[in-house]
Amino acid sequence: MVDILLRRRFGLLGRNISYSFSKGYFTEKFNNEVFAGNSYENFDISEINYFTELIKNNPDLKGLNVTIPYKEQVIPFLDKLSRKATLIGAVNTIKFTKKGKLKGYNTDYYGFKKSLEPLLEPHHKKALILGTGGASKGVAFALDELNIPYTFVSREAKENIIDYDLINATTFDNFQIIINCTPVGTSPNIDACPNLPYEFFTEKHIAYDLIYNPAETTFLKKAKERGAIIKNGHDMLIFQAEKAWKIWNK
């Protein structure tokens, strides 16, 4: 097993990712002698068009994770997608195949689903998804698998999307799971939070934030003050990272 896993490079594709969870997680994982020889690094590019050059200059890469803002933008640069990545419309894991092809996968949905399931009670019937980017698509797919109806929230109302101004006490009565898929509240802007009427959170609600830095965002703090169950994105990241590792090694 050791021989198979030796001398392989992996990394994270994103923008402004010095804070990255993935690099620290995989570096620590690779410090285990079983995985000796593997390395993980950040590939911080200012726009997606630099991706082609990145691949050309790093022919020994075996796998990449993908984060904001490239989960959707990277798709045209890939040779193929897994069935679930196609359905979701976003990629957060890329496998470099033995034939030199780039195949996109989505493990976000798996990580989110696995971390949310233990919190669910029969009264958690519907979800609000704050944000409409690549991360929110994986969340929506997971909710579909859990048979939980959802509605997207964005700054501008569109078809099947409501805006924040429409959220009121009735909304909170109807939606018991509120999921922040936006970067609002990420360090260093830790005082920021989505524009919600937080006074309507109750002990019947789950507030889930995909952000993991800080561990307790302002969004989570305000929801907790009203008795809501809270969860950050740390466990989701671990689950999705381990799923990516399996994909790279299959």
Provide a descriptive summary of the structure in words:
This protein has helices at residues 2-5, 21-30, 51-57, 83-88, 108-116, 134-145, 169-174, 218-225, 234-249; strands spanning 9-14, 39-44, 61-66, 80-81, 93-96, 102-105, 127-130, 150-154, 161-163, 177-180, 206-209, 229-231. It has 250 residues and is of the alpha/beta class. A six-stranded mixed sheet has the order 2-1-3-5-6-4. Strands 9-8-7-10-11-12 form a six-stranded parallel sheet, with helices on both faces. The two termini are 13 Å apart. The model is unreliable at 1-5 (pLDDT under 50).
Task: Please provide a brief summary of the model.
The longest helix has 16 residues, at 234-249. The protein has helices at residues 2-5, 21-30, 51-57, 83-88, 108-116, 134-145, 169-174, 218-225, 234-249; strands spanning 9-14, 39-44, 61-66, 80-81, 93-96, 102-105, 127-130, 150-154, 161-163, 177-180, 206-209, 229-231.
Describe the structure using short key phrases:
250 residues; single chain; 9 helices; elongated; 31% helix; alpha/beta; 6-stranded mixed β-sheet
Tell me about the largest β-sheet.
Answer: 6 strands, mixed
Content of β-strand: 15-25%
Mean pLDDT: 94
In total, how many beta strands? 12
Structural class: alpha/beta
Q: What is the CA-atom radius of gyration, in angstroms?
A: 19 Å
| Form type | elongated
Number of helices: 9
Q: What is the ordering of alpha helices and beta strands?
A: HEHEHEEHEEHEHEEHEEHEH
Q: Ranges with pLDDT <50 over ≥5 residues?
A: 1-5
